[in-house]
Amino acid sequence: MINSACDCVISLLSYCNMRCPYCNSTDSRVTDSRPDIEDAIIRRRRVCNQCGAKFTTVERIQMRDLMVRKNSGKLEAFDREKLRRSIKLACRNREVGDEQIERLVTSIHRRLETEAPDDTVTSVMVGQMVSDSLLNLDPIAFVRFVSVYRKFSRVADFKKIIDQIPEADEGADVCALPKTTLF
Ligand SMILES: [Zn+2]
Question: 62-72, pLDDT tens digit by residue?
């Protein structure tokens, strides 16, 4: 019996047969649900009825179905996971936690949803938002990301971008860097 929006979501999830990441069984039950209003997500603790493993699923409230226009002109669906993976890769072995990365992804996703005209953003817009955010978060992650995103092929490309990062002086206001000079 579905008697609230929340029950409805649980029913849908049960119907979708959430797989246990340990034994692959689709038989699990929800033991706890926590909405995180700020991040627009709901975390659900689950227990697998087959192997007893505990795991968490995260449901995200999606406001719009975004499309990304690539430089080639091709359109593809915005892939939040892809965005998260590229940021995570740039932050590898840096002192940036998963939670910080998740928050960064959420803030970029939200900005894109807010600023996208006609539900379409460009890959340049996404790349620029990630670069700006990483510059504030970690300059090394920023350089790594930009080198991939801008397809650096020469050492000189790195030099050019590094020369524009303010000196790593503790407490320096990296936001002061004029964004338009970066590319
Ligand atoms: Zn299991």
Answer: 667 899 999 89
Distance between Cα 47 and ligand 1 center (Å): 8
For ligand 1, the distance from its centroid to the CA atom of residue 28, given in whole angstroms, is 8
Q: Please report which confidence band the pLDDT of residue 50 belongs to, taking 50, 70 and 90 as the band edges.
A: very high
CA of 54 to the centre of ligand 1 (A): 8
Give the integer Cα–Cα distance in Å for 160 and 96: 25
Dist. CA 18 → ligand 1 center (Å): 11
Could you tell me if 164 and 181 are in contact, meaning their C-beta atoms sit under 8 angstroms apart? yes
